[in-house]
Design goal:
By secondary structure, the chain is of the alpha/beta class. About 30% of the residues lie in helices and about 15% in strands.
Amino acid sequence: MSTRVLLWTDTPAAYLDAIAAADLTSRVKVEALGRKETPNQAQRAETEAMLSWGAPPGLLPQMPKLRWAQALTAGVEGWLALPDLPPPLTLTCARGTHRESMAENILGALFYLTKPYAAIVEDQKSSKWVRRVATPLAGQTLGILGLGAIGQQVAGIAKAIGMRVIGTKRRTEELPGVDAVLPPERTDEVLAQSDYVLLLLPATPDTDNFMEARRFGQMKPGAWLLNFGRGHLIRDDDLIAAVSGKRIAGAILDVFRQEPLPVEHPFWTTPGIVVLPHIGGGHPRRDTVVAKLFVDNLTRFLNGEPLNEVVDRGAGY
């Protein structure tokens, strides 16, 4: 009997193609459902595996046969916040599937801060020839809070252009391109040494408001904060105070507590804060990359084998 699989996404084509390429079509019965639609009674009753951005409260307990859900994102705080997330449900995430695009966008942010191209474009609008000097990244220290898959990808690139890279990781180990890997308890040391602090921490109760007034005070006065992790890692008011008071140079933010960022939010108008519209992990082939992980997990699921990127509910990611 075929396993019932629900693709709850507006872009199912890449996943259907990957299922066919893996020769799994005969072993599964696949249904696709638009993201704004709701599973019907039959889908709730029969679905055994699901690919989805998330689920509303009250739905998952109505899916008695659902044994595995594949999240389309690396962060799963929305799933874990569900009051009725079934304990037996295996939840996997898309960890690592956007490491290349994220790393490139982070590198772009570093170049934006140190190379005068934006100012030169403005000069050109007025036909002005203004000599500007770029700041080298080589020799500067990049501190990465959260040396997971993306952090390690960024570290390799940063090291290749001559930066010193340090950072934190729950399980300390030597990593390629990283000069020093410290436990989270030594975060203050990373902050004190870094010219650029990159936030890539997961969303957990322990990381809520992780960057607040005291930690901003540990940073160099000329240092920049880059948040490509989760919006709730920062206490917004404390960041605004740190930037406005020149306690740090400024910040580039790609993630926020509420998205889209409300028009009245002071991040928009605070000099020294750059607002990005959550561009970090997106790219035209993202579904194709996630589909590889999904189909590998689907094959494992059908064969009764352990799945990859299983979420640790206790750890929160």
